[in-house]
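Bug report

Summary: structure tokens for Retrovirus-related Pol polyprotein from transposon 17.6 differ between web form and batch submission.
Environment: batch mode, default settings.
Steps: 1) Submit the sequence below via batch. 2) Compare with the web form result.

Sequence submitted:
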Amino acid sequence: MEGKKNVNFVRDKQEDKGKESAKQACYRCGKEGHFGRDLECPAKGKTCHKCGGADHFGSQCKTKTAEPPKPRREEKTKGRKTKMSVRSLRSERDEDEYTFTVNSATSTGKIDVTVGGVVVAMLIDSGASTNVIDKNLWLKLKQDKVNCVSRKSDKKLYAYGSKQPLNVLGTFSALARVEGKEAEAEFVLIKGEGVALLRRETAIQLGVLKLGTQMCTVTYNETIMSDYFKEIFEVVPKQKDEIRLCVDMRRANEANIRERYPIPTMDEVLQSLNQSTVFSKLDLKWGYHPLELHPDSRSITTFTTHCGLYRYKRLMFGISSAPEVYQHVIQQSVQGCEGVANISDDIIIHHGKNTEEHDRRLQRVLERLKEKNLTLNAEKCKFHMTQMVFMGLVLSNNGIGPAEDKVKAIIDARVSQSASQVRCFLGLANYNARCIPDFATVAEPL
């Protein structure tokens, strides 16, 4: 029929594209002759060295490289403007100096640093190697009469990814202080606007930044079903703003089977220290807590708080058998080490001839404690002492004597008003009886 056209064959143009794609380079490996989804692609299972992604080579990586940031960009966030800037500074004199930080005009996490007598809000940058302050803050510091030494500088600082140096106006040195810790620091003054940055080294010196891996304990919540719980829970203050949690275990101790292990007396320890001239004292940390309780014994330690029931998983203060158990474990831990004695968590290493032998004994004890996963309290440890206080007595190469605090306690003691107070006073004085001539005769009237 005239005027009509018949369509007898329809060819998809993608067929031609498929032939062309076989000649194009693979978007994963860059080679021709196969598709990117081909299992035989050389890039299959490989890791890109640029972005860390899988199944492609770095030469074919589509990840965009970081572009030099604009000096300042304004973005609208929830109806308000927030100035964002990415800063990185380095010096041409030292290719290893960098500063990486993303700053916001509304950023938090700042700390107050006293710079030359003026308080400045600064942001800690653990990747920075230069303290940075902008011109506006510098004008405020001068207005507040900051105590510093300013100087011109030929340093060239660069924003991250940029080849154009920032405008450095100069540098100044001032004393930086945070909560009693001080450090002499140099600050670079730049033209522009931004958050004051506190570099890595200065932050470490001021004690506001700690680098390194810390061990964390992962715990999990478990429902406690216990027939035992203690209503009396006491918080006892310790030194340096520390506390000790105490649970009233008197009822539980009535049924507790104590481990009969003799704790050495001070006279026994003094006998082993005879003729010693060099001493070191080690103090174990966390008291009884390094010893783990058996699961069957944990329910006895259950106590109640306003947040619910809790129980101890480790040996705690208040258990009647804790001193004997702890003494036994620590004494076994240092068994075989020469010149070592301990009473509870206090360990003393001694020698009477030379410091070399003392150091070998000390090294052996430290290695043994490390093997047993026991931690020391560095603040209470003393090394290479010719005179030290141990269990209330002063030890030296001249013999033993009473500690000053014990003597002061006896002198400042109040007049006893009852028989129980007299017994307490005699107990205090009796501890130093070996240092008091004719103590029995003197104390007989009491």
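Above is the batch result. After comparison, the two runs are identical; trailing whitespace caused the diff. The two ends are 141 Å apart (CA to CA). The longest strand covers residues 168-178.
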